[in-house]
Amino acid sequence: MIYLNTTTDSTTQPAPSPVAPVPSTEQTSSIPYTTFALIALFVMIASYLIVKWIINFKRSIDKTKSTLKHELVTRYVQGFNWKSSAILNIIIINVLSITVVLFGIIYLAKKYEKPLSSAALSGFYGSIAIGLLLLIIFWISYIILFINGFKDAQYHHKKDLEAELKAIKNSLNINNYDHPELIKLDIEKIKAENPLGTKVIAKFIYQYNHLQEQKLEKQYLTYLDQIFKINLFLESLEAMEKSEKQNIEKIENQENETKEVVEQKSDTELTKLEKEIIWMERADRKVTIIKEANKLEKSLSKEEIQKRYEEYLYTIRNEDPLHANVQRNSWLTYRDSDIEDLFYNPNSYVIYSIDNGQTSLELSYKNFIIYYKDLLIKKFYSTK
């Protein structure tokens, strides 16, 4: 008997293979660390410059007020104008801050072409915020310093300038306002030993000769600029002369003390022959120095001597803290090239004329500045 197998064979079906993921068309880019490092560098530099600018602008305002005193009746910061080197610092600060903002805007604009990671997005949004914050801090600081620095009623008389100048004139107690209308300089002679100082004085004299041709406000600004520079020059020069006198006295005292010790020792220990030998050695050293100086003067041209003199002045003044206070500084608006040039050679002389060249007069550099200041005050207030 044949039995038929009625059960169907159960065949095992193979498991379906996993479906491969469809490649995404949007892949986030890696974080641009180099760009962020550059942004961080710009932020640090801009922050440092803003702090430095705020400190020095406050000092410039204070120095302007303390030097001009009661003659300053408007909001005016010495040396702060669109032609000054201080404007370059403002431009640099704003360019750095705007660059930080632009970095963020440019990279965020590219996110549609190549999506950024969430960390990169946060970083670029942050750079825009920081850049804008730097700009806001800078300009708000400027406005606050300017308004707060001139908040006193003394500096709010721009509209009443003529009346205020009349009041100042009455307070000066000047009985005689006689002054020459024109001053002439013998520039060729005086610039030989003081080329930079002569340039500044020539500019002063030109403005003096044309002062009455200007409108009142322009006259006043020209007057303030000159009076400030003259006052600062005389004030700083007096401090330098006082310091130099003290140093000379100190050296002389030391030499006298040394001389006394040597003399006491000489009386007890040195013979007459030894004293003569010491005297001859000192004399020989002096003669040698004089001969070398004469030889050097003959071998060098005037240009080379002038160059070496300028190098000497530069070295000496860099080592002198008093001269450092009058060197050009683009952060302190009042210390411009005119202030520095006035101190080029204060020991020179000025040859000038107040009668259209008929009579030639001569004064030391310092005395001429004092004399000219008196004439400037008289000419400015004579018509007020």
From TrEMBL:
Residues 234-271 form a coiled coil. It comes from the Bacteria. Keywords: Coiled coil, Membrane, Transmembrane, Transmembrane helix. The keyword Transmembrane helix applies. The chain crosses the membrane at residues 31-55, 86-108, 128-150. Residues 1-13 have a biased composition (Polar residues). Residues 1-26 are annotated as: Disordered. This is Uncharacterized protein.
